[in-house]
Structure formats: C-alpha cells, structure tokens
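Support case: user asked for a sample of complex input and structure output to validate their parser. Sending the pair below.
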Amino acid sequence: MTARPLNRRRRAAAGIVGLALAATACGTGGSTASEGEADADASLPAGCEDYADYAGSSGTEVSMYTSIRDIEADRYVQSFEEFEKCTGITINYEGSGEFEAQLNVKVQGGNAPDIAFIPQPGLLQRFVQAGKVMEVPEGTAENVEEFWSEAWKEYGSVDGKLYAAPMGANVKSYVWYSPSQFEEAGYEVPTTLDELMALSDEIAGSGKKPWCAGIESGDATGWPATDWVEDMMLRTAGAETYDQWVNHEIPFNDDAVVEAVDAVGAILKNEKYVNAGFGDVRSIATTSFQDAGTPILEGECFLHRQASFYANQWPEGTTVAEDGDVFAFYLPSESEDSKPVLGGGEFVAAFADRPEVQKVQTYLSSDEYANTKAEIGDWISANTGLDVANVKNPIDQLSVETLQDESAEFRFDGSDLMPAAVGAGSFWNGMTEWINGAETKQVLDGIEESWPSS
Amino acid sequence: MNETQPKLLMLMYGIIAFFAVVGILLLVVDRAPKRGREKVQLVAFLAPALLLLAVGLLIPAIRTVILSFKGPFSDTWVGLDNYAWMFTNGDSRRILLNTAAWVVLVPTLATTVGLLYAIVIDKARGEAFAKALVFMPMAISLVGASIIWKFVYTVRPADDNQIGLANQLLVLVGLEPYRFLQDPPWNTLFLIVILIWIQAGFAMVILSAAIKAVSADVIEAARLDGVNAWQMFRNVTLPSIRPAVVVVMVTITITTLKAFDIVRTTTGGQFETGVVATALYDQAFVFGEVGKGSALAVLLFVLVLPIVVYQVGVLRSQREIR
C-alpha cells in the first residue's frame, strides 16, 4: 500500500508520546523521553526496525485472555513471535472455552488479565460501566481513527469514548452453495431476495429441499437462528431500524421485527424448503451448526446461510473456492443497490495501563499486525490497511472485499450488542423455541419481557 | 513473583507451613495450664475448622444474600425486585415448576424403585450380580450419564434409521419416533428419568443393607403369626427400615435440588427444561445479572434448609432411641 511509509512516521510520533507516558509513569520525568526513544531504538535486535515504536519495555510480561483455542490460538501465538523477539515483551496467551463466564469471575475477583479479546460489544460495555476497562492509549486511538470505519469504532466505544480497538472480523451475510452443483442444474447465483426465493421454489419444484440449517451449539444453541433474524432485519427493515431494535429504542416485539422473523420463517419454517438432509423443520433445533452445511457436499442440500468462518467446518480435503467444491455468495438484499453486511469480530480491551500493555494494544491495532496475522492464514480483519494480496484463501478474500466495499453498510451482530440476558439468553432460547414450533409473536413478546430494565 | 517459582517448591512451602502451624498449635495446647486446659483445647482444635467454615461457607453465604438485594452490578439496592422477578417472570416461573417436578418425582421414584428392587432380590440367587447391575450407574459421572442418555433419546426422521435406543424401540413396535428432549413439558420427565436411573442404585444399596439388618427374631415372630408378603412388608420391614428410608429420601432430595449437570448437558436449559441451578448459573455468570443469580441461589438455600433441619432432627431422635 502506498500510504504505508507515511503511516509509519505518524505512528513513530505516537510512539514517542506513548514512551513519554511510560517514562512519566516510571518517575524519570517526561523531558528525557526522546532520548529514551533513541536508546531503546539502538537496543533493538537487528531486523527489528519496524518495531521501534514499541521498544523500551524489554523483560516485561503481558497476559492475554481470549475465547480462541486450539489451532487458531496457535496462529495467534505465532503472530506475536516477531513482536516478542524484537521488543522483549512476553505475551502470555490463554484461551478458554468458558471465556465469557470466566472473564467475569477473573475481573470481579481482582485477577483480571491485562488484555482480553472480547467478541461482544455488549459484554465490553458491561465491563466499562463497572469501571474495569482502561481507555485506549493515544497510539491505538490514532490507529483506529485511521484504519477502521466509523461503525467499527463506534462498536468499541462506550458513551463516545473508545475503550477497545477492533481486531479480527468475520462476515455473516453469506449463503454457502456448491458451484459445480449450481452449474450442473443451471442455477444462477441470486442477486436479490426475490431471486433467492424464486431459486428456492425452483429447487423445491424439482423435488429436492433447497435449504439446510442447524442451530444446535451446546449452551449457545439458537445463535445461528438469531443471525438469520438480524440479517433479515437489515434487509426488510433497514439499518436504521436495526440500530433502534438493537438499542431497544423500539420494543423487541415491534411489527418490523415480526416481519423480519416471519421472513426468516418463510424459509426456515417452510416444510418444502427445509431441512435438506436432516428431516423436517424441527430437526433444525437439534442439528449442530457444525454439521448443518455438510449435506451440500452430498448433493442433498443447495443453500446454507452461515458466516465466513464456516469455511473451517468443511471436512478435510474440501476445496473452498469459486470453482471448488463449495463457496459462498452474499445473501442478497431486496434490491441490488443496497448492500447491508452483518458481521462480527473481537475487540481488544485492556484491564491495565502499564506501558507494555499499551504497546501490545497499539501493535494489535496497526495495519502491520493485520497483515502479519492474515499472512499466517484463516483470519481477516476490517482494518482497511489489510492488503487483500496478503489474504490467502478465496472466502477470506471475498470477506475482506465485502468489508472494505464502500457501498456496503456494515452492522455488528445484534445479539452481541444486546444485554447478555437477551443476546446470549432469551433471544437464543426464544429462536430455538420458535424453530421448535412456537408462534412468532408469542416468542418476541417473551424476549421483550426479558429485556433487563436497568 | 510467585509465578516464576516452580510449583513443586510452592507446594513444599505449603506443606511445611501446614505442619509448622499444627505443630505449634499442639505445643501450645500441651503447655496450657492445668486449670482450664479443656477450654483451651476446645478452642484450639475447633478454631481452624470454624475459621475455614467462616471463610469458605458462612461469609460467602452472607454475601450472596446481600447481593441478592442489589442490582446487576452490585452497586445499587433494589430491595425485593430480584425476588419479585423470580415469581412473576414467565421463564423463571417455568423454572420453579420444573424444579418442583424434579424434587417431587426423583426422591419418591428413586426410593421406590430402589426399595422394591432390594426386596425382590433379597436372598435371591445371584443377588450380588443383580445389585451390581443397578448400582453401576452410580459409578458414572452425571455428565457422562447425561451424554449416554442424550444418545438414547436421539431422534432421526421417521424414514431414516434411528440411532437412539429409545426411538428404535418405538419404531420396532410400530410407533412414530418421538422427540424426547424437545417437547415440553414431558421432556423434563425424560430428564428426571436419568437421575432416577442413577439414584435408584444408591437407594437400593442402602435399603438392602437396612433390610438385612432387620432382626431375625422379629421376622420369625411375624412368620409364626402367619403374615402374607404384603403384611410382612407393610407392618414389619418398612417400619424397621424407616430411618434408612428417610436418610435416602433426604439425600436424594438435596442432590435433586442441585441438579445442574443433567439439564446443562442434555438440553442446556432449552425447550423449557431449565431448573433453579441452571438458571442461577446463567443469570450470575453468563448474563452478568449477579443480583438475580444471587436471589436464585438464596432460594435454593431456603429450599434445602428445611430438609437439612429435618434430617438433623431425625438423626437426633434416632440417637435418643439408642
């Protein structure tokens, strides 16, 4: 990217400010900051010129707590290696399957990690309101200003103050399909919602069920159905009403929501459409989201709406590409002119303001980190400094293009923004009941009732 | 600092410190003046246990009660709001009803099944084997048992091969496959079956031992009086083993009130199967509603309390008889 050298200079300036803060914190006085910068620079190992901004905290440790485990966690650890080697800061990464609950316990018990990757802005807001999260340092704020869209910045902020820089991202508005199967049957990738429904009818007319879905996900059962509703809200009611709905400025059982849920019902509760490869409508509730798309490979199912990260769920040996076994198309909206995009991501919240913590924070929000991490694989970010050329697999490339598309209107996964009692509770449970046979209005009334009053 | 030290070393320090404290304590008690030595001993030996009880049980319990009157961030007082929510909200009413179903059904059915089985196999051939068969589930963890039963209840479409035992049986006798875990309110019943399956073995073992302890004189006297099997059970066996039955019932009731693993593993509280313990966890740790979670915890405590008091009463009256 042509803008890069300029960015780097600006960040160097930010780094000096950060160092000045650090120096003051150590009680040595701010006036020596620029000398400190020079010294630190000289002490960096060879080949580490890019990390000059983060120098001066050698021998310190930063603890990091996230919900990401296994191979993806290894990739994170790998992405920090060079940073650690050059700056001398050790990052202690810990991933947990019980992240949300355990983070709560750790923070309340006075044992908070230095840095946590929080995937739910709603959860972030709770910690901010409890006064536990530090505001981002200046260098991070500048990075966010420069590399992220206003919408993303807003999701990391509480009451106008930025508390967490965005990091990883995913795009949820995708429909998975089999390109070869489509070609064989002569189906076209639909570009409007009407075309999508027409295609579904056409497939159903041929005696096969078009859609497969599954919302079982352990104690998070129901979330894929809430994604469906959010995607439809953006399409039938528009982004503005979506925001009002997420912020509870309109009730959860508003007519606009009823309309969106019924639009989902036109697919998910249509016995002619679902559940390809698994059974009837109610089998959606007990089919795990990991398995839900696999009938596509066996030619039993044609369409499966799921996020970009579903790419990791296909069995080994499946080619995910536009000319491969499976690929995804954008879940179209009512007209070709509007392009709402539903997505998710993580935010980097700091529970400490030691200089080394702030340096890690700033590094994670930089375009260098986004490119380093993307090159390792299977990861993207909404960081506009991310070069598509560094992203390897086709679905991730498509996602980066979607995220960086100027005409696309990005909205964060609503259930992650709502209070946890709704977004990780009654909304999930409600949609599971809805799939299980409950009426739309009755389910939405129940969720509205569960919205916390405070 | 502590993190950099090897864990074994830390462990050793802990053990040394423990022995040092105990050693000094014994020394002090031993050196106490003759007069009032008993009192010193009493205090010295009770103090550590009381201290640990206070830190680990009493203080958290009091804190939970206090938190139950506060809001989600524990910074504002909300009076009885959390309790009002508990009894007025539709979802939590369902949870209370489910818990009631568990508490009524599990202890009675598990004890009945255990008792009948114990009587039937008493002095029968292969008694040990028959006992082991029913006691076996006790050896499986609740989560393990739940996973087993989740497979048993698995449902597939009618025209596919069933992989769940229960539905395979239904299909064999010509019925439609049934969604055991998905249809309220009956799904709660099928979850209850899991706990009964586990607890019946416990009831059987204790009651069987009690039956064997019934004095042979009494039985012989009854036989001479010409009782039939039912009269023998109703008028001789049951009164003799009553204390054991009470202990079994109480123990199972307390286990049932705390039922958490089964619901969380099989349905995650979905499909209207939630109970107090799962709701408590969700509210306090998942939703961050510490106040509501604490209120549910207090409710659980209040429900367990009378049962414990009753049990202590029974134990005391037994001691008096002896």
